Amino acid sequence: ADHQKADWVSIHEKICQLLVPVRTSLPFLIPEEERKHGVEQLVKRQKYIIDLTYSTAQKFLWDGKHEKAMPAALHALRFSTEVYGSSSVQLVPAYLLLAEACIGVGHHLQASKYLSQAQWIVLRTPDCSAAVQHRLHRSLGLLCAAEGNFERALYHLANDIYLASSTFGVKSIEISGGCFHMANVFFRQNKMDIADSLYAEV
Question: What domain of life does the native source organism fall in (predicted)?
């Protein structure tokens, strides 16, 4: 009952009516052109739900509401899998959302499993964009920092900043997150001069 309530508050209320046409099967005996149009409409609706569930989960994370982010992120992953397949790079953003939500509530082992899935997909995608890779390194850095493995966290966050710089430019807003999390790591190591310079950069 608690899980159902959490799911409803998090996302289900927003997508409930959208699920009806998505879950309704197409009639079997219809012309091919009509069937093709029906499939196109179905995929369009599914992609809309992916965008909605992803943005809802992201907003909960930004607000620090990690538990509320999980149901929305799970829906994003579920529909991404239906549309793109289980090994598509399109699933990585949903896995990263789930990992960040798990880190936020202290479920580090589960976060590690989600990040392993994301890493496996990235490694199997030779042309995976630097934009996706920088977000993966940021999530890996956050997990390492949460576990107290500061050297490993700095390694991943340095990769995050480098990849974001090469994609978006050295003065882009996308870099600020990596710098902020790196500053937090140096702050926890009591290296205040480095932490302050990074905070100033943010």
Answer: Eukaryota
| Mean pLDDT of all residues in 175-198 | 96
Q: Please enumerate in sequence order all residues whose Cβ is within 8 A of that of 38, keeping only pairs 6 or more positions apart, or say none.
A: 26, 30
Shared fold status for 1-118 and 129-201: yes
pTM over 0.90: no
Architecture of domain 129-201: Alpha Horseshoe (1.25)
Please give the class, per CATH, of domain 1-118. Answer: mainly alpha
Contact yes or no for 54/93 (Cβ under 8 A): yes
Q: DSSP class of residue 89?
A: G
**Do 112 and 152 meet the contact criterion of CB atoms below 8 Å apart?**
no
pLDDT given for residue 41 in this prediction: 72
| Tokens encoding 163 | 């990849």
Q: Where are the domains of the chain?
A: 1-118, 129-201
Q: Is the pLDDT of residue 84 over 70?
A: yes
Sign of the Cα pseudo-torsion (95, 97, 101, 103, in order) = positive
What's the rounded Cα separation, in Å, for the pair 80 and 21? 17
Q: Tokens 């960040």, residue?
A: 100
Residue 101 confidence (pLDDT) above 80 = yes
DSSP assignment string, 13-48: HHHHHHHHHHHSPPPSSS-HHHHHHHHHHHHHHHHH
SS3 169: coil
Report d(CA 154, CA 140) in Å as an integer: 10
